[in-house]
Design brief:
- It contains 16 helices and 13 strands.
- The protein is an alpha/beta fold.
- The chain has 2 domains: 10-198 and 373-387, Glycogen Phosphorylase B (Rossmann fold), CATH 3.40.50; 201-369, Rossmann fold, CATH 3.40.50.2000.
- The strands form 2 sheets. Strands 3-2-1-4-5-6-7 form a 7-stranded parallel beta sheet, with helices on both faces. It has a 6-stranded parallel beta sheet with strand order 10-9-8-11-12-13, with helices on both faces.
- Mean pLDDT is 88; it is low at 1-6.
């Protein structure tokens, strides 16, 4: 790897997780971590990326120095592996890409304490909102009740106890003001910085793409994403527009069987296409651009990277009216009542049946998307690194 042209901190970006295939990132957190690191390297920061095993993420980060641990092997062994990476790369600080994964949080905390390195952590979601709201005794009680077995109980408690230590000892990076408020009020974080989020440049490609689908959803099939709400809405859309086509991009998540069952029960098999996971990012962007509208009924997001990508691709967006989506996207998106299929159906039909309205919201999306830049994010992260 080429040495930076100007002196800068040496950063160890830790991206350990066991969810999903090594060939497949599991969400926007990984993409965000990679793109931030790539942009940091362009500012003279030397970044080494640590993974359990080589994955597709290395394809996105060829300017980064790779370091693998040979798999995720447990909290203590991975912490030792991170400390070894610190010694070999002479890293000045540890940058944990997300507080969501135990495989990242616990080893990073242990390594930071033993190696006496500063720790920076992205808080990317409110997935653990229920646990975060409990006091320590309540967390211990719920851990014992909800996690039968000694090993799951210890692992769960160790993870959440570590997160609480990280909030107080580490520096927290968030994408927007809402997540900053969450970090300060719910997590009692002592040092927080709002750094925003970005979109890869190829999403802005304005090459004309044939519109093969009326609507697209991209993401996992987790309960918080509320994809069944979209399927129920699509049933209503098809009643008004029988040839309407919905594209679902993604795989995995406990709601996928339910979604497929609803598609069959509602007689939508010829109106819904399951594209599965698309690991080539440029192909993904092309697929998203092949739709007229982007719909995202999720009720729990830390930022909503897929929304920013859809806007950069020029798609009008229909979203749940929840924070932080309201804060970030309200200037350009149509926000509707959460968990309301009728509201989603009406908003989608309003765009599909009125080309002028669709083009108006497409222009709004394109305009707002100009604010999403990974180089801007990297400059804010670098400023945060310099203040600690």
């Amino acid at each position: 790897m080429t040495e930076p042209s100007s002196p800068g901190p040496r950063v160890l970006l830790v991206m350990l997780r066991t969810q999903g295939s090594p060939a497949r990132p599991t969400g926007g957190g990984q993409i965000g971590g990679i793109q931030t690191a790539v942009a940091l390297s362009g500012l003279g920061v030397k970044v080494c990326m640590v993974e359990g095993k080589p994955s597709i993420l290395f394809e996105y980060a060829r300017v980064l120095e790779p370091y693998t641990l040979g798999g995720t092997r447990g909290f203590l062994r991975d912490a030792v592996g991170i400390m070894s990476a610190i010694r070999k790369t002479r890293a000045d600080l540890i940058y944990a890409f997300s507080d969501y994964f135990p495989e990242t949080v616990v080893p990073c905390l242990l390594a930071a304490i033993v190696a006496r390195k500063k720790l920076f952590v992205n808080v990317t979601s409110m997935a653990y909102k229920a646990a975060d709201g409990r006091k320590l005794l309540g967390l211990i009680r719920s851990t014992i009740l909800d996690r039968p077995g000694i090993r799951p109980t210890l692992a769960f408690f160790t993870f959440h106890a570590s997160r609480r230590i990280v909030w107080r000892l580490g520096t927290i990076l968030v994408a927007n003001r809402f997540m900053e408020m969450y970090a300060k009020s719910r997590l009692h974080a002592r040092r927080t910085f709002v750094v925003g989020a970005g979109v890869e440049k190829f999403w802005y490609d304005r090459t004309e793409t044939e519109k093969l689908f009326d609507c697209v959803y991209s993401g996992r099939f987790d309960p918080s994403k509320r994809v069944p709400v979209l399927i129920r809405a699509w049933q209503m859309v098809v009643k008004k527009k029988p040839d309407a086509m919905l594209l679902l991009i993604g795989e995995g998540g406990p709601d996928l069987p339910l979604v497929k069952r609803l598609v069959g029960e509602f007689g939508l098999s010829s109106n819904v296409t399951f594209a599965g996971f698309i690991n080539e990012r440029r192909v993904l962007a092309s697929k998203v651009r092949s739709a007229r509208v982007f719909a995202f009924p999720s009720v729990q997001e830390g930022f909503g990277l897929v929304i920013a990508e859809a806007m950069a691709a020029g798609l009008p967006c229909v979203l749940s009216d929840v924070e932080p989506l309201r804060e970030v996207f309200s200037e350009a998106a149509i926000l509707v009542r959460r968990d309301d299929p009728s509201a989603f159906a009406d908003a989608i039909l309003g765009l599909l049946l009125d080309e002028g309205r669709r083009l108006e919201y497409s222009a709004r999306s394109e305009s707002l998307a100009q604010n999403f830049s990974w180089s801007t994010v990297a400059k804010k992260v670098l400023a945060a690194l310099g203040e600690q």
